[in-house]
């Protein structure tokens, strides 16, 4: 059973090495396997770019036009997401002017519209605990345990979980401050003894 925000279908045309490909990820763990140079990372790039994220997230090509297949004028990425009413996001990339056009369910949209739609489904392509491109593995490995916890909470929970955690941290800091103030007051008043 697909969760809300799951990718149901991906269709690519003239994207990097692909002329035309369509695949249907399952509702559970999906793995893309194959020898080097067969297009695994290209699919990952397509998902990130098709959901509205910038090329800098991938650590690969800088210009969006670099993802158009050599010899072609445009590429398209179409991603269908599970929702109460299925959402189909289409990004058409124009090589000549290094630009993109967006559609949501066949209607013209802006990048802001796409990001808002993706955000409502808690899809976080910029969160390394939810989306880990090959070129970002070393960055993921450098996360501290506390950063890893925060990013994991954002990836699997709703906004309330993160807010509760931040509130607990703040309350713990306040508790530490009050304890120090009370110890200082006891010391000043002569009630502090060292054993």
From TrEMBL:
The protein's matches in InterPro entries, at most eight in alphabetical order, are given as: P-loop_NTPase, Rad50/SbcC_AAA
Name of one Pfam family that matches: AAA_23
> Could you state a single Gene Ontology molecular function term?
ATP hydrolysis activity
Protein's GO biological process: double-strand break repair via homologous recombination
Report domain Rad50/SbcC-type AAA positions. 9-164
Question: Transmembrane region positions?
Answer: 177-194
Q: What name does UniProt use for this protein?
A: Structural maintenance of chromosomes protein 5
**Species of provenance:** Rhizophagus irregularis
């Amino acid at each position: 059973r697909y969760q809300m925000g799951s990718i149901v279908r991906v269709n690519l045309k003239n994207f990097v090495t692909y002329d035309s490909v369509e695949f249907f990820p399952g509702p559970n763990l999906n793995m893309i396997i194959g020898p080097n140079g067969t297009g695994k990372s290209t699919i990952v790039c397509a998902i990130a770019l098709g959901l509205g994220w910038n090329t800098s997230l991938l650590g690969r090509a800088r210009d969006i036009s670099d993802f158009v297949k050599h010899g072609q004028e445009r590429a398209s990425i179409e991603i269908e997401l599970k929702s109460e009413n299925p959402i189909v996001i289409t990004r058409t990339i124009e090589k000549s002017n290094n630009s993109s056009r967006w559609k949501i369910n066949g209607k013209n949209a802006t990048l802001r519209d796409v990001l808002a739609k993706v955000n409502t489904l808690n899809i976080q392509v910029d969160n390394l605990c939810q989306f880990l491109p090959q070129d970002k593995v070393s960055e993921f490995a450098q996360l501290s345990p506390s950063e890893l916890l925060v990013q994991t909470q954002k990836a699997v929970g709703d906004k309330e979980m993160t807010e509760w955690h931040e509130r607990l941290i703040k309350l713990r800091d306040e508790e530490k401050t009050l304890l120090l103030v009370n110890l200082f007051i006891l010391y000043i008043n002569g009630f502090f003894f060292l054993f």
